[in-house]
């Protein structure tokens, strides 16, 4: 896994844990917490939504779903991720899974 992908997965994991800890949060709350742009947060939330881990009951507000997530060890930062990649032409499509 390259460094950029690793950094992105770490951030997505942190976003999930932040939402889980805080309850319902806004896109701006997440962007402010992690020092990223709203667009970066939206991409991270898309990955989490695609995997059924967060939902937006009200536009711009996010909360976790009831989907079970395994967390190993004593540290809540130990959420496990995996990903697979497909290449279509010059476009790489990544599918992420959060366990």
Give me the number of helical elements. 3
Strand order in the sheet with the most strands: 1-3-2
In terms of per-residue confidence, which ranges show pLDDT below 50 for 5 or more consecutive residues? 73-78
| Structural class computed from helices and strand pairing | alpha+beta
Notable characteristics:
99 residues, alpha+beta, 3-stranded antiparallel sheet, two-stranded antiparallel sheet, 5 strands, 27% strand, globular
Q: What this model shows, in words?
A:
The protein starts with a helix and ends with a strand. The longest helix is centred in the first third of the chain and has 20 residues, at 3-22. It is globular, with a radius of gyration of 13 Å. It has three helices and five strands, in the order αβααββββ. It has helices at residues 3-22, 27-34, 38-50, and strands at residues 25-26, 54-58, 61-64, 81-88, 91-98. The strands form two sheets. The chain has a three-stranded antiparallel β-sheet with strand order 1-3-2. Strands 4-5 form a two-stranded antiparallel ribbon. It is of the alpha+beta class and 99 residues long.
Topology:
Blueprint: H1 3-22, E1 25-26, H2 27-34, H3 38-50, E2 54-58, E3 61-64, E4 81-88, E5 91-98
Antiparallel strand pairs: 1-3, 2-3, 4-5
């Amino acid at each position: 896994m390259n460094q950029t992908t690793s950094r992105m997965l770490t951030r997505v994991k942190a976003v999930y844990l932040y939402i889980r800890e805080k309850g319902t949060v806004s896109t701006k709350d997440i962007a402010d917490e992690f020092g990223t742009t709203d667009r970066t947060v939206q991409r991270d939330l898309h990955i989490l939504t695609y995997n059924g881990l967060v939902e937006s009951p009200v536009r711009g507000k996010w909360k976790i779903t009831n989907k079970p997530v395994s967390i190993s060890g004593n540290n809540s930062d130990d959420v496990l991720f995996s990903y697979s990649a497909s290449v279509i032409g010059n476009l790489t499509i990544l599918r992420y899974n959060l366990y």
